[in-house]
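Fold Annotation — chain and its backbone

Encoding — discrete vocabulary of local shapes
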Amino acid sequence: MPGKLAFVPRRTTLLLAAVAGLGLPLLSAAPALAHGYTTAPPSRALLCSEDVVTDCGPIQWEPQSTEGPKGFPDAGPADGTICAAGDSRWAPLDDPRGGTWPAVSLTPGASFTFTWTLTAAHATTSFRYFVTRDGWDPTQPLTRDQLDLTPFLEVDYGGRIPPYSIAHTGTLPVKHGRHMILAVWTIADTGNAFYQCSDVDFGA
């Protein structure tokens, strides 16, 4: 199992410092202050922010900002825009890049601790984790018909506010080869949720 990653979005810090140095209102940088991203397994947004993957567009500055309508899978982002939470600013996250996104090795059926870093905590309904179906096509943007729509792990929060560093331990699905894990953090007191896509490999 890969080790947990400790991450502080350095670009966000530099951006805020630059804005302050120019004497501009910090309100103009407010989107960079919200909200959360997955660190284990690392999400596409995190990989972009850490320059592991390049040509990602503005998500490199805001890995925590993949926020879109909640209600997945019945509602939420449209098919093909799920990794970007339906927000065109983050569209590079939906680009499959020919199936070449870096993938973390996982052991099927093993215990695994999923982790998030939050930059703004919210009253929370749940954290849910979905995985792609066997035979899905990693060279195509993620759609609902490529996912097992029953989460393999769900952690209910009942409206409580989670800590800024979160860990959820569960059992990985029994899969083989390359897959994607979709983590959905559903907010209780707004109409939105946060979507994070992680590329993983369960081996032969």
Q: What stands out?
A: The domain at 10-201 is CATH 2.70.50.50 (Coagulation Factor XIII; Chain A, domain 1). Strands lie at 36-40, 67-69, 104-105, 111-118, 124-132, 147-156, 165-171, 178-187, 192-201. Confidence is low (pLDDT under 50) at residues 1-34.
